[in-house]
Amino acid sequence: MSEQAVDLLDSLPTSGFEAASPLGHVNVLGLPTQAADAAGIVFGSLATLGLLSVRLAGANGEQRDVFEELLGMSLPTGPLTSSTHDDRVVRWISPDEWLLSVSREELFALEVLFAERMPGHYSLVNVTGGLAVWQLSGRQVLGLLRKCVPVDLHITVFPVGKVVSTLCAKSSVILRRQDEDAFELVVRRSFADYLWRWIDDASREFGGLRPPQRSRFMNSRRFLGP
After folding, report:
1. What is the pTM of this model?
2. Which of 44, 73, 160, 161 sits CB 3.0–4.6 Å from 135 for a disulfide?
């Protein structure tokens, strides 16, 4: 049987264009800066992330080893778990599906490496354009999320690192706990404006939203308004 060559398309523009966020019309960094004891919710939009949907056989040791070698992190095979390494995060979605976030500059290089190294059947799809990644934190974040998320967020049943696919104000999201008072939301692009408006309104009883002063969880990644 002859081998068939596969061409890979680099979907990251290189002609001076910048990727647009679904919150491009919202000046997140221009949110009113309130005193720490007044603003209960910190909202950040991670606009520099690249997202890859990965599908492979988690029980296949050879595939798992190649993944871990390429990413420098373990593949989380336990349900509702995640792994992190520097700024990279991989989230368990189903027994054979994961959502991987890396810097946008790494996307195409990873696709090439997967094509060269990954054995057997697998799928690696760039889904950056269809999703947005937000971070909600602060002393009142649990109060806000309990208004819109139908899962138990108590730390004993939803520990740091846990990931669930659920609803937030009737919009589908992937929710990951980063700290006792900090959560990551992966939101569908088409619902981003609606969900942003809902969160902005719901946060007012907790003192409103304010932008982050710095990233607590991403070492080098900048928070951006758009």
Report:
1. 0.84
2. 44
